[in-house]
C-alpha cells in the first residue's frame, strides 16, 4: 500500500472505523461479571466503567465536534484510532479497576473523535445513492462491530486462557491494522471551510434544527438499547435469566447485533420516517419480551428480546441518520453528525449511572424493568416527534437544491432556507 486509496476503497475503510466505535464500546461487555467477581465490584462500579465512556465521548464532541470539517476526516479519524488503541491496550494489561477507568477514557476519546467523521466520510465516499447507502452501511458496520465484540468476547472468556485480556489483545491487533489502512485515506476532504478551527460546541443551523431534533431523539432512543445490552446485558443473563454459560449469554446478546445488521440491509427500502416508526414499535415489543425474561427467568424470552431490540435499533438509527443526512450540507456534516452523537452518548452515560445505582441500592431486576419502561416511553415520544416532522414538511435533500435556494450564513456556510 504505497498510494492513496480510491474512493470505493476509502468507503470500506471508513466503514471499518464505524465498526470500531461499536466494537470498542462493547468490548468489555462479557468481562464485566469477571471484573465484579475478581475485584468484588458492585453494579454501580461496573456500570460506571461503562458510563465513563459515553461521558468522555460527550466531552470530546463538545470540544472537537466539528474539527473534521477543518482538518479533514482522515486526520481526525487517525487521532481517534490512536486513542482507541491506547485504551484497548490498557484493558489488555489492566492490573486493577483504576486502569479500566483510564482505558475507558481513552476509548471515549477515540470514539468521540472518529464517530462523526467516519459517518460523514461514508456519505462523501458513497457516490450515487449516497444517503441511503451510507446510512445502511453505518448500521451494518455497527452491527459487525457490536456482534464481534460480544461473540469474540464470549468465546474467549468461556473457552480461552486469559479471559479478561485475550479479547482485548485481538481487538488491539485489528485496530492497528485499521490505523494503517486509514493512513492511506485520501486527503481531499481536508479544509472544507475558509475559517480557522477553534474549540466550540457543535453547531446546527436554524434551518435544519427541527429535523435535527427529531433525528437526534430517534438516535438517542436507539442508543438506550446499548445501556441495557452492553452495560447490564451480561449481568442480566447471569443473575436474572440464570444462564451460567458465558458463550451462550454472549450469543443471546449478539443476536441483538446480528438482527441489527440484517435489518440494516432491509432498511434501505424504507423512508427515514417509516424506518423510525417501525423501529420504535419493534423496540417496544423487544422491551416487553425483556420484562418477560426477568419475570420468568427464561432464556426463551431473553433471546427474542435481544433479537427484536436489534431490529428496533437498526431501523431507528437508520431512519434518524437518513432524515438528518438528507438536509445537511456537506461543509458542516461532520459537526452536525457529532452534535447528534453528543446527545445520544450523553443520555446513555447518565442512564447507565442511574440504572447501576438502582441495581446496587435495590436490585438488578428493578433496574432492568425501569430501563425497559423508559425505553417504551421514549419510543412513543419518537413516534410522535417524527410523525409531526413528516406532517410539517417533506425532507428535501440539499444535494438537489440549487444554490440560490439556500441562505448564506455569516460564517460562509449554507443551510436550507426555512421557506424551502
TrEMBL record:
Ranges that cross the membrane: 12-35, 41-64, 76-95, 101-122, 134-160, 166-185, 206-226, 246-267, 274-295, 301-324, 336-355, 361-386
Gene3D superfamilies tied to this protein: MFS general substrate transporter like domains
SUPFAM superfamilies: MFS general substrate transporter
Domain of life of the source: Bacteria
Alphabetized InterPro entries for the sequence: MFS (IPR011701), MFS_dom (IPR020846), MFS_trans_sf (IPR036259), MFS_Transporters (IPR050171)
Keyword check for Transmembrane helix: yes
Chief location: membrane
PANTHER family in the record: MAJOR FACILITATOR SUPERFAMILY MFS_1, RESISTANCE PROTEIN MDTM, PUTATIVE-RELATED-RELATED
Identification of the protein by name: MFS transporter
Annotated organism of origin: Rhizobium oryzicola
Lineage of the species this protein comes from: Bacteria, Pseudomonadati, Pseudomonadota, Alphaproteobacteria, Hyphomicrobiales
Amino acid at each position: 500500500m504505497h498510494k492513496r486509496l480510491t474512493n470505493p476503497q476509502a468507503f470500506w475503510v471508513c466503514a471499518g472505523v464505524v465498526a470500531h466505535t461499536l466494537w470498542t464500546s462493547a468490548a468489555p461487555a462479557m468481562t464485566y461479571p469477571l471484573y465484579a467477581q475478581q475485584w468484588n465490584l458492585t453494579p454501580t462500579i461496573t456500570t460506571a466503567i461503562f458510563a465513563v465512556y459515553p461521558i468522555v465521548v460527550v466531552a470530546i464532541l463538545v470540544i472537537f465536534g466539528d474539527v473534521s470539517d477543518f482538518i479533514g476526516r482522515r486526520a481526525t479519524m487517525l487521532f481517534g484510532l490512536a486513542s482507541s488503541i491506547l485504551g484497548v491496550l490498557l484493558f489488555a494489561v489492566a492490573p486493577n479497576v483504576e486502569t479500566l477507568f483510564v482505558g475507558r477514557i481513552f476509548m471515549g476519546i477515540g470514539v468521540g473523535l472518529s464517530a462523526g467523521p467516519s459517518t460523514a466520510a461514508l456519505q462523501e465516499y458513497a457516490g450515487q445513492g449516497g444517503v441511503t447507502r451510507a446510512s445502511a452501511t453505518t448500521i451494518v458496520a455497527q452491527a459487525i462491530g457490536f456482534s464481534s465484540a460480544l461473540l469474540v468476547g464470549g468465546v474467549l472468556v468461556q473457552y480461552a486462557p486469559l479471559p479478561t485480556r485475550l479479547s482485548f489483545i485481538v481487538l488491539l491487533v485489528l485496530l492497528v491494522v485499521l490505523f494503517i489502512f486509514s493512513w492511506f485515506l485520501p486527503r481531499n476532504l481536508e479544509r472544507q471551510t475558509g475559517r480557522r478551527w477553534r474549540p466550540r460546541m457543535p453547531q446546527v443551523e436554524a434551518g435544519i434544527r427541527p429535523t435535527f431534533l427529531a433525528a437526534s431523539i430517534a438516535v438517542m432512543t436507539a442508543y438506550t438499547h446499548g445501556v441495557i445490552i452492553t452495560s447490564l446485558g451480561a449481568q442480566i443473563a447471569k443473575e436474572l435469566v440464570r444462564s451460567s454459560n458465558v458463550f451462550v449469554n454472549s450469543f443471546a446478546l449478539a443476536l441483538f447485533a446480528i438482527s441489527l445488521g440484517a435489518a440494516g440491509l432491509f432498511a434501505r427500502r424504507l423512508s427515514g420516517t417509516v424506518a423510525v416508526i417501525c423501529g420504535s414499535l419493534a423496540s417496544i415489543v423487544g422491551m416487553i419480551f425483556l420484562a418477560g425474561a426477568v419475570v420468568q427467568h427464561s432464556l426463551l424470552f431473553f433471546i427474542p428480546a435481544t433479537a427484536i431490540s436489534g431490529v428496533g435499533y437498526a431501523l431507528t438509527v437508520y431512519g434518524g441518520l437518513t432524515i438528518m443526512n438528507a438536509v445537511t450540507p456537506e461543509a458542516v456534516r461532520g459537526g452536525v453528525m457529532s452534535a447528534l452523537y453528543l446527545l445520544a452518548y450523553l443520555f446513555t452515560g447518565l442512564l447507565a449511572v442511574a440504572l447501576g445505582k438502582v441495581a446496587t441500592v435495590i436490585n438488578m431486576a428493578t433496574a432492568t424493568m425501569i430501563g425497559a419502561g423508559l425505553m417504551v416511553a421514549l419510543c412513543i415520544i419518537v413516534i410522535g416527534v417524527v410523525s409531526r416532522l413528516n406532517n410539517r414538511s417533506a425532507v428535501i435533500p440539499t444535494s438537489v437544491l440549487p444554490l440560490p435556494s439556500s441562505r448564506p450564513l455569516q460564517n460562509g456556510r449554507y443551510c436550507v432556507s426555512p421557506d424551502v
